[in-house]
Amino acid sequence: MPNPIITAFERSPDRGRGLARDMRVRWALEEVGQPYDVRLVSFKEMKEPAYRALHPFGQIPAYEEGDLVLFESGAIVFHIAERHAGLLPDDAKARALAIAWMFAALNTVEPPILDREIATLVERGKSWYGERLPGLEDRVHVRLGELSSRLGDADWLDGTFSAGDLLMVTVLRRLSGSGLLDRYPNLCAYVARGEARPAYQRAFADQLAVFTGRAQPR
Ligand code: GTB
Q: Which residues contact 104 (CB under 8 A, 6 or more apart)?
């Protein structure tokens, strides 16, 4: 079976900081030890019909595995986690909870983070930006406070590291540089624990190499 192929930005606007959503797919593939290939796409190519046949919304990442074509980073990580050991527990109840954390990361924690991020990018020049930002940040803090309380002093959200943690760490990383995570030392340590994993480091190095133009020896 040939390696799965993921798509990623030819030139990521994050300049290799691992904030684009191919990072979570790369990390999942590294965690389970599945080699993969990467097809880099330009913004122009992403909007062309040939690419939209892979990804209806013209975005990265898309994932090709034989005749299976997937889009949505959460669905791709779930697919990888279901087919390989290491990202979802075998026990049915623990597995269901890990999947709940995957949805929580994407559906409950990421949206307010994204709303704030989009506002800082596209609404900064508006006269009402200064009034809107505190409300957006409050909504982020509500979720961070709840997540921080739930995590407490545990290493991971529910026992061993899972795809739920993988997605949650990538979601929280989107706050890097904002300072919003600073008042939650346990969440900062949680993100750092994720970033310290060898699989994360390999994934990060590979996406950075795309930006710097220096491919990593494998
Ligand atoms: N729900 C989809 C998923 O989870 O896969 C969302 C996919 C998505 O938003 N993809 C973005 C994209 O292709 C890249 S990741 N955007 C181009 C477009 O829509 O035309 C989002 C992203 C982009 C850049 C940064 N950054 O520079 O820091 C961070 C995150």
A: 164, 168
From the list 150, 60, 75, the residue with the least C-alpha distance to 109 is 150
pLDDT at residue 214 in the model: 73
Residue-wise pLDDT tens digits, 181-204: 999 999 999 999 999 999 999 999
Nearest protein Cα to ligand 1, atom 18: 59
- Torsion from C-alpha of 80, 83, 89, 93, nearest 10 degrees: 100
> What 3-state DSSP class applies to 47?
coil
pTM for the structure as a whole: 0.96
Q: In what order do the strands lie in the sheet with 5-9?
A: 37-41, 5-9, 62-65, 68-71
**Residue minimizing CA distance to atom 13 of ligand 1:** 59
In ligand 1, the atom with minimum distance to the C-alpha of 59 is 13
And the tokens for 176? 């890097």
Ligand 1 centroid from CA 91, angstroms: 33
Kindly tell me if the per-residue pLDDT of 218 is higher than 80: no
User: Which DSSP string corresponds to 136-190?
Assistant: HHHHHHHHHHHHHHHHTT-SSTTSS--HHHHHHHHHHHTTTTTSTTTT-HHHHHH
pLDDT digits (tens, 9 = 90+) for 14-56: 999 999 999 999 999 999 999 999 999 999 999 999 999 999 9
Q: Would you state the pLDDT for residue 1?
A: 82
Query: For ligand 1, which residues put their CB under 6 angstroms from it?
Result: 12-14, 19-21, 46, 58-60, 72-74
